[in-house]
What we know:
The protein is mainly β. The protein contains one helix and ten strands. It folds into two domains: 1-49, no CATH class; 57-142, CATH 2.40.50.100. The protein has one helix at residues 3-17; strands spanning 22-27, 30-35, 67-70, 75-78, 94-95, 100-106, 109-114, 119-124, 131-132, 137-142. A hairpin with a 2-residue loop joins β1 and β2. The termini are far apart.
Amino acid sequence: MTDDRRRIDDLIEIMREHDLDALTVRAGEVTYELVRREESGIPATSAESPPVAAVPPSESAASIHVKKVTAPIIGVFYRSPSPGAEPFVEVGDRVSIGQALCILEAMKLMNEITSDYAGVVTRILPQNGQVISLGEEMFWIEP
Length: 143
């Protein structure tokens, strides 16, 4: 068994012991990011890798004025405050600084994510219910 695999197994055990839904650990230059995904049957481990967003080629280039709102934590992305409620924002909506954009659920806590920018929402990248990584782009806002 490799050292990386042993470390991952140890981190999974810590997650189980403490009933954690997500865990990020930095060891030197390596970051281990683990997210529990029991409902989908996908293994909950991943070694360091950059987030990958599926972006159609025609939409991959952002305007030089675009401000990108990124995830401050690992969590499950929710567009609305509760199931069945209207989304916080839609593409085309004008937002102000401090306005709620979404909720990220991490370790059974609902974290409201607000905008650091004023402008118009031009893209919403994650799907509702998607697990997103620390630093992953969530919204594009243009002044």
